[in-house]
């Protein structure tokens, strides 16, 4: 494994670096690792509707960066006291890329620091039943990225005020509920350390013996910045546009929340947009396109879903659950 070492706190740069080392740059190692942090930022899940997920006025007043990531899942708040980690794996084994495969070394490193960390839920890490980390993944061709956040000494008040989500999420219930359900690494360390010392400890613990270090060159940085400019710094990527819809359905399952917005005219689906904090295991845009031109009728939709196996594009979602998300 090779550690990609840099100190850039721009979230757009870091997401650009994930793409660059995942799909363009070959440094002679198929297993790469990044441990990074950002300026105060709201990271939007790949399939979420940005304006519905954030407190826009708070974000503007406090100068928060708003960036959509490549992976699914929910919106998170991060700052200089919140760490992010990224495992970038090329030519990966599709049977050995579950969440636990990547979170185990993170949990073990925390345990070495005397923390009672463990994996739980669909994608989270906990200490004494309280959440300290959320994780997500995305894949392209023969490469994948697994990344996660670590609440080290995160500003929980800013977290609560910056995110605007539905009642089924804990942050909508205020700071008291957040403090009851999430916790921070710094509050559990028997031997105090600052965020930099914590990073150094985690990196050293996670990397395998003999791991190398790669520091991006000037040409690497220039290309990463190009990716950030063309994608992660654009309004189209971070907000996007949607056609007018006349049907909106929201459902929550064990695999995550799904909101299906449809424009239906004369009984035919003309436009479709799918939002949510779910994880993708396939092409969600292909699902949206497959539903267009189809009669908005339960049996027809059920047959389409089954024939094209549309539900398999969503991680751990059944055909029946996808149908329920679209129509009664």
Structure explained in plain terms:
This protein is of the alpha+beta class. An eight-stranded mixed β-sheet has the order 7-8-9-10-6-2-1-11, sandwiched between helices. Strands 4-3-5 form a three-stranded mixed β-sheet, covered by helices on one side. Strands 12-13-14 form a three-stranded antiparallel β-sheet, with helices on one face. It is globular and about 65 Å long. A hairpin with a 2-residue loop joins strand 9 and strand 10. It contains twelve helices and 14 strands.
Q: Descriptors for this entry?
A:
single chain; 328 residues; alpha+beta; 12 helices; 27% strand; globular
Please provide the ordered H/E string of secondary-structure elements.
Answer: EHEEHHEEEHEEEEHHHEHHEEEHHH
| Distance, first to last CA | 49 Å
Multimer state: single chain
Radius of gyration: 20 Å
Low-confidence stretches: 165-172
How many strands, which pairing sense, and closed or not: the largest β-sheet?
Answer: 8 strands, mixed
Count up the helices. 12
Overall form? globular
Instruction: For the largest sheet, list the strands in their spatial order.
Output: 7-8-9-10-6-2-1-11
Q: β content, as a range? A: 25-35%
On the 0 to 100 scale, the average pLDDT is 91
Helix fraction, binned, reads 25-40%
Structural class comes to: alpha+beta
Tell me the number of strands.
14
């Amino acid at each position: 494994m090779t550690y990609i070492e840099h100190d850039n706190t721009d979230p757009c740069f870091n997401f650009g670096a994930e793409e660059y080392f995942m799909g363009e740059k070959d440094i002679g190692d198929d297993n790469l690792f990044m441990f990074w942090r950002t300026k105060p930022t709201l990271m939007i899940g790949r399939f979420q509707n940005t304006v519905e997920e954030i407190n826009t006025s708070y974000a503007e007043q406090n100068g928060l960066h708003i960036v959509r990531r490549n992976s699914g899942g929910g919106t998170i708040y991060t700052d200089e006291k919140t760490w992010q980690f990224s495992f970038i794996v090329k030519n990966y084994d599709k049977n050995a890329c579950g969440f636990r495969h990547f979170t185990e070394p993170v949990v073990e490193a925390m345990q070495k620091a005397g923390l009672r960390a463990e994996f739980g839920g669909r994608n989270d890490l906990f200490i004494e039943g309280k959440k300290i980390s959320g994780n997500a993944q995305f894949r392209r061709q023969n490469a994948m990225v697994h990344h996660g956040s670590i609440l080290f000494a995160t500003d929980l008040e800013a977290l609560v005020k910056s995110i605007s989500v539905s009642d089924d999420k804990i942050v909508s219930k205020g700071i008291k509920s957040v403090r009851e359900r999430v916790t921070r690494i710094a509050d559990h360390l028997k031997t105090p350390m600052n965020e930099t010392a914590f990073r150094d400890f985690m990196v050293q613990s996670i990397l395998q013996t003999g791991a190398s270090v790669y520091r991006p060159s000037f040409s690497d940085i220039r290309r990463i910045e190009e990716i950030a400019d063309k994608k992660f710094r654009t309004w189209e990527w971070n907000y996007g546009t949607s056609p007018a819809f006349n049907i909106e359905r929201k459902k929550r399952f064990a695999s995550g929340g799904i909101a299906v917005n449809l424009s239906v005219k004369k009984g035919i689906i003309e436009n479709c947009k799918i939002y949510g904090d779910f994880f993708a295991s396939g092409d969600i845009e292909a699902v949206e396109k497959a539903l267009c031109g189809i009669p908005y009728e339960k049996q027809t939709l059920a047959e389409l879903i089954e024939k094209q196996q549309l539900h398999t594009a969503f991680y751990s979602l059944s055909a029946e659950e996808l149908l329920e998300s679209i129509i009664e």
